[in-house]
Design a protein that fits this description.
four-stranded antiparallel β-sheet, alpha+beta, 8 strands, single chain, about 750 residues
Length: about 750
């Protein structure tokens, strides 16, 4: 008799335990992540990590990390990173630096090694996206103004966590924190991210667009999974982790208009393998020895809660937000995130942290997750306490950045240099990658064409590939409006403008000369002359100009494809949103459910502004947008209304929406009785005798339909409503059973 593979036996055990505890924790209204960790702790009593079967669980966990990071990448996207604003960027950098330093000092105080202490700092500097979203939903905080800042911080923390994983891997292997190796690893990582982001943005949206007619859900799922695992292979081949590859591909696909569809398709797979990973995290905890670490667990938990609250509050204040926003943001980021498990598993696999530290950090994470809702509830009393006790001068100083300020127009030089720098860096980076890949292929070319012939072929191919990008570097911004205006307005500008051209020419010439030196060991003068001739040919070629414009246009269309699509569907443009932000006043949209108390009423009947103090800016009804609706406009179920108001006003309205939704959900769902066809006979003494069908009330009172009568062995279908009912008539009725039985009573 055949036996089930141990690989599958382990999967069965993991899923059974995860299912049982997830139901229990759902009943307890606790996050699913905790249920999986507890399930792993229970499984650790049955499967020891010294058991050969544990290796299979490690394989399942690695697959879990891949799909978990792929899902996070789909929610991340590099364009979202560029849109989070300076508030989230400044706050995140302040939080990460503060918490890594605090964690490092805590580890040193416990007598741990510098590497273990550094890993501890990295593990406690990230907050939990899953837990924050759940608690925000439970506490009805998602429409608060500070919630947007918190979500922006979480977006940047995802990227920082991925970068930290790479750096920590390098440090763990080399056992060095300084030196050229770290610098090389940094540039290698940035190069990997930029290369695949640019190439992926150029190719993948086009591929998905051309294949759209063939992309049903099944095919799209297979293709996106293949992209993910393909990037995992490329990342590991380049010396990075599989998690980085999955995250990068997720962030590339997040830029496509199919991202939401892919995210829905991959969601179940991410949850499935994510559960396996978190169960494996719990299996690393040994309850028998956990008592030894109870003091470090509580101390680190307190360090995390206090450190995150203070550093996040300080970071948000530093970014220019007011005291209220900073306090509420700080109290939201008070737990250890999911990335801590991945970083802990990384340190354990590299042998640079002890098993005890792994158990301490996971246990601390569980404690901080349990504490999160209660800590978040302290934000309001803390803010009111600070408002009462802080001197007014301090409050004025802390709130100085809270009001909206008009954005000054950038001067022409600043705008030109910013756009020019971005354009030059992107194109020059592509040129460097082309040169790097070409020189890497030289040995293979020499197998076919040895010596000078092979080198000549490589150099020609490289120059052809470099041509459109170098042309953009040299001439692209020289014909811009800013460049021409600066040139014509002031003769003193011409020298600096020429200098910018000269710098770009020398950058391009230097790269071509590098190729010539590598392949032919050419004299400097000859190499420089050939490089200048090539660049002049690039600039003069009209064919190359068209090709360069085509490449740039194609890239920009793919890059902005999702943004334009979302803007066409969005209720309000970003520019409009930016102009209405003032203190804690902001815009939010609400879906009107059928059971909503405002459904079916006009704005005049609702007296919306008088009752809630808010304005309805827009009503969205399918593809129709009703801007600034008047009092006669009616709100229908399925509409989305866009409101302008403060946090407190939004909260009052949201409570009403949630209350009606809760009543609808809690209403006992009784299955409607089936409709049956039955016959009854009118007996002596029946109240129906002598009445017509019309006056009998069979349909009105009993909700039954009389479809036929049998009388004296004759049948009458659909009898006349004025027919008088007699004793002995057999009535054919359609209705619910209980209603039919009541007809003759």
């Amino acid at each position: 008799m055949s036996e089930l593979s141990p690989f599958l036996v382990d999967l069965v055990m993991i899923l059974v335990a995860a299912a049982a505890f997830s139901l229990l924790f759902k009943w307890l209204k606790q996050p699913a992540v905790l249920s999986y960790i507890i399930a792993g702790i229970v499984l650790s009593f049955f499967i020891s990590k010294d058991n050969p079967e544990y290796e299979h669980i490690g394989n399942w966990a690695e697959i879990g990390i891949i799909f978990l990071l792929f899902g996070l990448g789909l929610e991340f996207s590099f364009r979202k990173l560029m849109k989070v604003g300076t508030t989230a960027i400044i706050a995140t950098l302040f939080i990460v630096f503060s918490m890594i330093s605090l964690g490092y000092l805590t580890g040193i105080c416990f007598g741990w090694s510098p590497i273990s202490s550094l890993f501890l700092g990295a593990m406690i500097c990230m907050s939990s996206t899953m837990i924050i979203i759940k608690v925000f939903n439970d506490l009805k905080l998602t429409q608060k103004n500070f919630a947007k800042i918190v979500f922006g911080i979480l977006v940047i923390e995802d990227l920082v966590a991925v970068l930290l994983m790479v750096f920590l891997s390098t440090i763990a292997v080399s056992q060095e924190v300084e030196g050229w190796k770290m610098l090389y690893s940094f540039f290698k990582l940035i190069g990997f991210l930029l290369f695949w982001f640019l190439l992926g943005t150029y190719l993948i949206p086009t591929f998905l667009r051309k294949m759209k007619q063939f992309l049903n859900d099944e095919t799209l799922l297979i293709i996106s999974t293949a992209f993910c695992l393909g990037m995992v292979f490329l990342a590991t081949t380049a010396g990075f982790s599989s998690a980085l590859g999955a995250f990068v591909m997720g962030s590339i696909l997040a830029e496509t208009i199919d991202s939401e569809r892919i995210e829905k398709l991959i969601h179940s797979i991410k949850d499935f393998f994510g559960a396996i990973f978190f169960v494996s995290v719990g299996m690393m905890i040994q309850l028998s020895t956990l008592g030894e670490y109870i003091v470090p667990i509580f101390i680190i938990s307190l360090v995390v809660i206090a450190g995150q609250v203070l550093s996040a509050t300080g970071g948000v204040l530093l970014s220019g937000q007011n005291l209220k926003t900073a306090v509420f943001s700080g109290f939201s980021l008070c737990q250890i995130g999911e990335f801590s498990y991945i970083i802990a598993a990384l340190g354990l696999s590299l042998g640079v942290i002890e098993s005890s530290l792994y158990q301490i950090i996971v246990s601390s994470s569980v404690l901080t997750i349990f504490a999160s809702p209660y800590v978040m509830k302290l934000a309001n009393p803390t803010y009111f306490f600070l408002e009462r006790t802080l001197p007014q001068t301090w409050q004025d100083f802390l709130n100085k950045g809270s009001s909206a300020h008009p954005v000054n127009e950038q001067n022409l030089w600043k705008k030109l240099l910013k756009e020019m720098t971005t354009m030059v860096l992107i194109n020059y980076f592509i040129c460097i990658i082309i040169v790097y890949l070409a020189l890497f292929e030289v040995p293979f070319v020499h197998e076919l064409l040895p010596g000078v012939k092979g080198n000549l072929l490589v150099s020609i191919v490289v120059i052809i590939l470099l041509a459109p990008f170098m042309r953009s570097i040299i001439i692209k911004k020289d014909r811009s409006e800013e460049f021409r205006q600066l040139w014509s307005d002031n003769k003193n500008n011409r020298g600096p403008l020429v200098f910018t051209i000269l710098i770009r020419v020398l950058m391009c010439a230097g790269l071509i000369m590098f190729v010539l030196f590598k392949l032919f060991h050419t004299h400097f003068v000859i190499a420089f002359t050939l490089a200048i001739i090539c660049l002049m040919a690039f600039v003069a070629s009209s064919h190359l100009k068209a090709h360069s414009i085509l490449i740039e246009r194609h890239f920009k269309e793919n890059l902005h494809e999702k943004e334009k699509y979302n803007e066409s569907k969005a209720p309000l443009t970003k520019g409009f949103v930016d102009h209405v932000l003032e203190r804690d006043m902001h815009l939010a949209d609400f879906a009107i459910l059928p059971q909503s108390p405002i459904a079916g009423k006009t704005l005049k009947e609702l007296k919306f502004r008088q009752v809630f103090g808010m304005n309805i800016v827009m009503i969205i009804r399918g593809d129709i947008r009703i801007n600034i609706p008047n009092g006669n406009e009616r709100i229908y179920p399925g509409d989305r209304i866009v409101l302008l108001g403060t946090d407190s006003q939004m909260e009052i309205f949201q409570k009403q929406i949630e209350e009606s939704r809760r009543k609808y959900k809690n209403r006992e769902e009784k299955p409607s009785p089936e409709v049956q066809m039955k016959q009854i006979q009118i007996k002596e003494g029946s109240h129906l005798i002598g009445k017509t069908i019309r006056t009998s009330g069979i349909q009105e009172k009993n909700a039954c339909l009389l479809i036929g009568i049998e009388r004296n062995n004759t049948s009458m279908q659909n009898p006349d409503l004025d027919l008088v009912l007699e004793k002995g008539d057999i009535l054919w009725l359609i209705g619910e059973k209980n209603n039919i039985l009541q007809v003759d009573k």
